[in-house]
Design a protein that fits this description.
By secondary structure, the protein is α+β, with helices and mostly antiparallel strands. It starts with about 25 loop residues before the first strand and ends with a helix.
Length: about 725
Amino acid sequence: MARTIESPGVEINEVDLSLRTQNPVGTKILLHGFAPQGPTNELIQVSTRDELDQIFFGGEGPTNAAERYFYHSSREVLNSPATLLVTRMPYGSGDGTGFDGEYTALAYAASSNSTNFADSTGLFLQAPTVVTLTEGQYNDIKAGQLTWSTMGQTGSAAGTVSSFDTLGNAAMVIINDAKTTINEKYEGFYVAVADNSTVLLSGYDSVSAINTLNSSNTTVTLNESLLGFTLTGTDTTNPDNISKVVENSNNFDFTDSSYNDSLIVYFFRLRTSVYAADPNKLYYTPVEKYVGSLESNDQRASSVNGQMESFYLPDKINEQSNYVQMFVNPNIANYGVVETLRNQSKTLNPVGAYTPCNSPDSALKNIGNVPSKIDRALLLADNVQSLDIDIVLDGGLSTIWTYVGSSNGDATFDDTANVATGLSNLSNVDGASSAYAGYHRTIFNLYNNFCSNTRKDCMHISDPIRGIFVQGESFKTLDRNDRNFTSNVYVPLKNLYASANSNYAATYANWVQMYDNNTGKFTWMPFSGWQAAIMARMDTNLQPWYAPFGLNNGLIRNITDIAVKTTQKQQDMLYRIGVNPIVFFQGDGFVVWGQKTLQSKPSAFDRINVRRLFLVMERATMKVLRYFVAEPNTTFTRTRVVNVLTPLFDLAQNNEGMYDYLIVCDERNNTPQVIDNNEMKVDLYIKAVRTAEFILATFYATRTDADFNELIS
């Protein structure tokens, strides 16, 4: 260890070698659905049933089948120890109210500190203008077909911006890529822009006003009496204001003159809150932040690995943002005008057009394009680094899209519609009924891809189509004399999941009936919420790698009936195609009776307990190994890796998750070539515990004088 003292004495230093793994705690469940109110395009953690009612249902409960699926699935998860994360999908055609309108852009015009930009050493951004775009104009911008101004070679201003035709006069443009909106309560997404001169001041004042949009889509300044927070502050010790959030958003010394050409771009969500002292006021939530330059060739050393990487602001935003895209006038660099970059408008500005929540589309409660809405909602939860998710639920959305997909979602959802009778005859997926299977498969593929490819750390529970099990309001498929299990339940399920082939997904061959207090009737619900609750209770009482089925771990609560009651032979048929049965045992109740994934290949991963064991171990291992990035690839470091991971694997082994394991991180897999590639390899071998699913009891009749030891041997 290098010392810093240069004369006789004692120097004390500390080195932290106490890194340890974090054992898995809790179960986080993701659910999307329709509700009559509440924020859209936002991931919200709901902790109680009262919160669910207040935020999304106003204490009135669900009013239609789509809302019932979301409501009761959420309530069942909340009956377990799980953490529930939900996103409300908006009603309305296409992408839904507030998301299917025109694109908008924030265009920042600029001026210089010289009569000619070519002689200028500074660029000064003005207050942005909200510009409405058609989809064609939006695509033209993304395709690089916007004609940009030459940045005022003959004057001190780049020109005004009032429409798409003059958009090229701007210095930079922020496009509302997600098509979010500002509603009648002024809720929505807003952006703040600050330069490094702001943080040099004694107080915080990068945001002195909030501009928003009114019903005429005209920019107005928001009255501060509507805010539940302050904009600026001079008390630098503990100011509670949005300017402080903006100015303290850096993890480097932004006051340094090398950042004179850089900007902070910070996105906030403003909305009311039922938890606040005044639920009518707006409160802010930080959403995304970026720091960078408008110089396209600017590069800085990475704070992670020290390597040079692009510091160009559009590169950062366009690669990482879920909401916007940024475009910069390329002629800025031609004149070198960004040696000093200043934002002269200290305002928070709206991202999106004005669209009221209580619009006719919302009142009609048209379902809209469910796949597109799910796809957008999944973007909120795709960051593995910042958010843990264990289980992703269908929640009946595949059934909803199956019923309304043929009309492109331009319809309300009625699960008692006559179309349901046709769904129970999916015996030929290549025939007329194949479209129904195709709609269902679209939803399945979205969720399965999210779990297996995007995040790679969670499982999807898929719900089969309601019409396979129940028609009309409450008529069971097999109660009809002209229907039978093989043709009308087994074959449709087999064809529905014929191409699934995923060990990140599982499904269950039933819908469940429960009593709905809101309507005073019995209603049929998708099962995924109930299975998620079973897993959450098992995770709390045991471990995630136990099998979530059987009389000990698979009892189903809070239901009154199941749509299909199967015999042992019928259960065998379902299990062979990877569909888990739900059965009824006299005296024990309703029970999940299988734990297969939808993987067709016979391997350890065709069982849920093995898949979840690996998910738990992989997540914990990833979190540990992040702390070894940038460490020297030496024997000492590799030994530390093994020593830190060993307690985690011992925990799983001692708690019946694995029979044995081996962690290899030494010269056997870290050869000189591997080391020269700046890599460190860690190989982990696991003998996963298999579940006793098939118990074969054989009785032997013996002679009275038989020796049991001889018979056994």
